[in-house]
Design goal:
Layout: E1 3-8, H1 11-18, E2 25-30, H2 35-46, E3 54-63, E4 73-81, E5 89-90, H3 93-105, E6 111-117, H4 125-132, E7 138-140, H5 143-152, E8 157-165, H6 186-195, H7 197-221
Parallel strand pairs: 1-2, 1-3, 3-8, 4-6, 6-7
Antiparallel strand pairs: 3-7, 4-5, 4-8
Helix pairs in contact: 1-7, 2-5
């Protein structure tokens, strides 16, 4: 049995993990949204003496290429940062191979990917195209600082996410609702949602479908032995 810390940004994403019971001991950590929150939480949790065998970052991500459809499960080979000067971080090949092998054995497709972590939400095709120039094919807001904290603590780290919004999906401009820590300010987010009701409804529906896909994948992947 392995002890795995599973990092999720939100309660919505965390629900994919709560009901899983199997051969591994899972410790759920909710980091909060955004790189600032993720860094603070990961450093606090992983900086203690009681260390897990591995950490797995889960959740939603945005597609940066037309070839990645919504609902695609991706395992990161490496993770980049949109902050200038930050080096690429490699994910643990051994642990990732175990997760992907378990998924494939259950006939759940999983694509290898290079991800990038950004402090801003990529809401338009042009913003996604700019991020894709880094070589990444998906974007999220938490993976890089969590992987960085894991590397500093000598803990293998991997990322398993699902594409919730494709390259061509237009999102409401939730960047206007981000607070200083990188999370969403509830009142501002509501205002943005009310100003873009159709985009918001489509986003929520896409997120729900993606979480369902993620749940099926995690029920298999997080029981893998490594």
């Amino acid at each position: 049995m392995s002890r795995i810390y599973v990092f999720a940004a939100s309660e919505m994403e965390a629900e994919s993990v709560r009901r899983i019971a199997g051969s591994n001991e899972l410790v759920l950590v909710i980091s909060g949204m955004g790189p600032g929150n993720a860094r603070t939480k990961a450093e606090a949790v992983l900086g203690t003496g009681d260390k897990p065998d591995a950490i797995v970052v889960i959740g939603l991500c945005g597609g940066l290429t037309p070839s990645l459809a919504e609902g695609t499960i991706v395992a990161y080979r490496e993770c980049l940062s949109s902050e200038v000067g930050n080096p690429s971080l490699r994910c643990s090949k051994a642990v990732t191979d175990s997760l992907v092998t378990a998924l494939m054995a259950s006939k759940i497709p999983c694509d290898w990917a290079v991800g990038i972590t950004s402090a801003r939400i990529a809401t338009t095709r042009n913003e996604r195209a700019a991020l894709a120039e880094s070589g990444a094919v998906v974007v999220d807001m938490e993976s890089y600082p969590i992987l960085s904290a894991a590397a500093m603590a000598g803990i293998p780290g991997v990322v398993l996410r699902v594409v919730s919004d494709s390259m061509d999906r237009e999102l409401p401009d939730l960047n206007r609702a981000l607070n200083d820590a990188g999370g969403l300010d509830g009142r501002k987010a509501l205002k943005v949602a009310l100003g873009s009701p159709i985009k918001t409804a489509k986003l929520l529906a896409a997120n729900k479908r993606a979480i369902q896909r993620l749940t099926l994948a995690l029920e298999v992947a997080l029981q893998a032995r490594f």
